[in-house]
Amino acid sequence: MTTVTGIVKGGQLIPEEQWRKFIASLTPNPDDLETNKERSKRAIARLLAEAVKKRLKEKNAVLFSGGVDSSLIAFIIRKLGKEPLCYTVGMEGSDDLAWAQKSAQLHGFALRHKTITLEELETIMGKVIAITGSRDIITVGVGAVTYAGCAMAKRENHSAVFTGLGSEELFAGYERHAKALEQGFDAVHGECLAGLANMRQRDMVRDVAIASHFGMELLLPFLDKDVMKESLSIHPRKITMRENEAKCFPVSRRLERRGTGR
Question: What is the pLDDT of residue 65?
Answer without folding.
Answer: 93
